[in-house]
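Might you be able to check the backbone structure tokens below? Thank you kindly.
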Amino acid sequence: MKTAPYFILSSLLILSLAGCKNKPAQEAQETETQNKTFAVIESPYGMVEGKDVILYTLMAPNGFTVSITNYGGTVVSILAPDKSGDLGNVALGFDNLEGYLQPKNPYFGCTVGRYANRIANAQFQLGGKTYTLSPNDNGNMLHGGKKGFDKVVWRGNYGQSDTSAYLTLGYISQDGEEGFPGLMPVTVTFTIDGNYGLQIDYMAKTDKPTPVNLTNHTYFNLGAGKAPDILGHELMLRAPRYTPVNDQLIPTGKIEPVSGGPMDFTVPKAIGEDLAQVKGGYDHNFILNKNNKSLDLAATLYHKATGRYMEMWTTEPAVQFYSGNFLDGSLKGREGKSMVKHYGLCLEAQHYPDSPNQPDFPGTILNPGELYLQKTIYRFSTK
């Protein structure tokens, strides 16, 4: 897949530091980039804290379409074809911005940071100092705190070529934001290609040592409204090990093999096959079979009834597989449909949860002069 070059990311960081604003949407009318193949449409989506919220729609000539809003860097929809060629939305979400502003919104589609997943007791030590974070999950920090990257308005820049369309979002996380040290400019670039691929590139830098763990929190249901849940989806994870958790979903510090038990997805199986054996459902960090930053296949997902098939590729060492355990039907999604338990699943590329407090886990500290770089691809097809 052709990726927006990193100088675009660097330029956006510079522009962000200079205080650039979102490119304004046309009043009462959507605008489309002039391209006969790929296109980007921007349209007004509302306002948050006096800032314009924009919906950006990236379109490929084959119909593959991804919509993203700069509120929370959120993937709002992914239109991918089934085995009959009919397009359907495989990402859970809401009809409008108000849905995403609900306090109970469970991170649908958003960009998560500064630290994805949980940090125990909302604190960690670094350089001999204890940093207290914003607790928002049973006294722990979850997905960046009370106002993480999912609840801010990002600045947007977009473009297209003959082979791709992209949106780059930029945000400057302030020193002390949600308790994290260091001024940290960050960009996230979403790129679509002609082979039904959505690539997400992350880049960040800092002026003080700080833990960083970014991800995307899209909930997938390949049934696109035709499957009541994801329990019949067949999942494969190239993960021979995982990190067990306690009752608050904090890693115990152990690393254990999946070895043929309910956590074993090394061979594709239905998500519901062993679900009853997993207390509370799947919400675990699976360690991928890799030891470097190369881009490798991490997971596959298949829905037999529609024929939709998804591959997930990532440079990250792990994937959080979440089976939608906390969806309870109280939230209404598109067209007023209740999103019940297990209606969607997440495959979040990441470092291990609670790494700042776990000396045996891979480190997540970003130092001044270094770049945080991550790449994840979700690619759709049928079989």
Remarks:
- Residues 91 and 220 are 5 Å apart (CA to CA).
